[in-house]
Amino acid sequence: MNAPYYQSTILRVGNEAADLIDGGVLILFGEPLPGDLESLSVVHKPVDTPAQEIRPGDELWLGETRLTLTAVGERAQENLTTLGHMVVYVAPDPVAGLLPGAVHAEGPLAAPEPGAELRLVRA
């Protein structure tokens, strides 16, 4: 595996985040985050800002689970850099229209455990 260009540690999973993840949507937020978003989010602590631009084909690792990015919204890089924020959709298909701050990925989506590493890797 190539070296990650973005690394973070999962701190906690909001009490409503698991339901969203089961529906194919993962909301990531770096600390600090607005309190009203805590229950919907997977909160993480980034090591640093991304060293590269996010692009389709990159791998998102949540612990030992790998997702492959298939589409990247035009504001996803800015949101990740400034807020540690990224919304990952595994469903529906991005042809329906990807939100500017979101990414679409393929692969298994499950709630990560606190302490797990989050990594973005150029494939």
TrEMBL record:
<dbReference type="InterPro" id="IPR004716">
    <property type="entry name" value="PTS_IIA_glucitol/sorbitol-sp"/>
</dbReference>
<feature type="modified residue" description="Phosphohistidine; by HPr">
    <location>
        <position position="44"/>
    </location>
</feature>
<protein>
    <submittedName>
        <fullName>PTS glucitol/sorbitol transporter subunit IIA</fullName>
    </submittedName>
</protein>
<dbReference type="GO" id="GO:0009401">
    <property type="term" value="P:phosphoenolpyruvate-dependent sugar phosphotransferase system"/>
</dbReference>
<dbReference type="InterPro" id="IPR036665">
    <property type="entry name" value="PTS_IIA_glucitol/sorbitol_sf"/>
</dbReference>
<dbReference type="GO" id="GO:0005737">
    <property type="term" value="C:cytoplasm"/>
</dbReference>
<dbReference type="Pfam" id="PF03829">
    <property type="entry name" value="PTSIIA_gutA"/>
</dbReference>
<dbReference type="GO" id="GO:0016301">
    <property type="term" value="F:kinase activity"/>
</dbReference>
<dbReference type="GO" id="GO:0008982">
    <property type="term" value="F:protein-N(PI)-phosphohistidine-sugar phosphotransferase activity"/>
</dbReference>
